[in-house]
Amino acid sequence: MAFSGILRRRLIACSVMVAVLVFRTNAIDIYQEWNVAIDTTVNPTTSQQPVITINGMFPGPLINATTNDFIHVNVFNNLDEPLLFTWNGIQQRLNSWQDGVSGTNCPIQPGKNWTYVFQTKDQIGTFFYFPSINFQKAAGGFGSIRVNNRIVIDVPFPKPEAEFDLLIGDWLNTSYKDARSLIQSNNTSGELDLPDFVLMNGKGPYGYPGMVNYESFTVSQGKTYRFRVSNVGNDLSFNFRIQNHQMVVVETEGSYTQQITLDSLDVHVGQSYSVLVTANQQEADYYIVATPKMLSTAENNSLVGKGVLHYANSNTPVTGPLPGGPDPFNRSFSVDQAKSIRWNMTAGAARPNPQGTFNVSNVTLSQTFILRSSMADIGGLPCYVVNNVSYLTPETPLKLADQFANGSGVYQLDQFPVQSVNSAAVNGVFVATGNHKGWIELVLKNDLDVMDAWHLDGFGFYVVGFGDGDWQPDLRSTYNLLDPVVRSTTQQYRWGRKVLTMKIDQVYPGGWTAVYAFLDNPGMWNLRSQHLKNWYLGQELYIRVYDADPNPAKERPPPENLLLCGIFETPAPASPPPGPPAAPVPANAPVGQTPW
Asked: Is pTM beyond 0.70 here?
């Protein structure tokens, strides 16, 4: 196809040009090779089921980087279906080509491999990665990402003795393929109302009948440790605590926070925190606990995640009841704690100047989106909708269509409302304009019966406000514009009461969350629910931030190994006419998706 050949030549020319522009001072290249496969022997719970592993590991390998490093991940897809990975919270500055969601990338086909190359540009913090399509996150495939400070920038707390990554999340005993089939055909809340377990680093609860493996961390008395805690689950928020130990919150998703001491911490789906824990108790073992929000659970219930904090010289196993936490239905506790997580205005982070140099106290908004999440029946099937639009994933990634066809034939820009609700519930490719280098206000309104969490790729957003009922412009007077924390995932409150044998029987009024973001990162960016069922059934849209300047310093061109699919898919080549022999291909020439 002549068009595909033209595309490939353009890609090579652009890639050569951008290679000259990349700034690599004090940055290193990190290379990882991932073999992604199904394993039926891992068995994180008492049931045998398919688990997605990376190099035989569940969770997958740690990506341990420093600000501005370049990460190369060569992914070999040994699954029987297409695969993509996304990098939750990594902003992919000027480079949405590496974001790894359906709107930016063609999937890696079974039996093929593809290399992601992205930079941790101007970021520090705690993040994680996971598979982004086909409901695969429910089967694992996730792992931790650390982005450390450059040595020239001080960390705003003493160096801990060690750091621990702790990935906590709810888990289904059902095969992920069975689960996705069920939710696509089920018009009630169905069997997926509740997960089956809460895992810690892929291991079941300590002391639960039939469990052999559990998570344990060894500490030395008198030392302080940094726990990087992420909620990698699909449905449940949890409250995290350690028996007889307090924690100091110091960072969340790339922002150093004001340091507050807590007995327990709410962590919502998709969120990450760093907390400091000092081993200041008698040498013994202590419970590490994660209990779900909005659920009544008995102490030895499978939905109570349990691990062990083990003192190095301890001969005393964990004893006593689990450490008490807040009432899981206490709305005020959760909201007040969320409001208390504030930005450390004086600390440096990715850059030497204080975080507070960049603030929202005097910004001028250029756009406001009011986005209502709810459920709808479309064509007899259950859907999650944003402003009554359930996202319909096209075969051609939006970014690909944007680059080579101005979106033509794939999506229509600004087709759906961003400040009102569509008159009827519909499926559609929801793409909205974001004004380049403008400040956007996102008001996220929750009309669902449960708590929700929203994530924006490509940016950190300033969490400026929470409230009940409908949002009105005069409620901006309640915003925190002094020191709102900057993060990539925020919670949405709507409160119902669940017990393990009942449906929701009481619902509090819906809530809203307001965030600001500065759209200085051109690209095609996914805004989604972090709850996997919601996302899979349509609760997402894309924000197109466009800069007409073709200078690759403004936005990276497509990578040389760009995958083509959909309307740009390369057909099987016809037999060429006789001609001169082709020039040899250098052994180190970059390639796209190739079999191995």
From this structure: yes
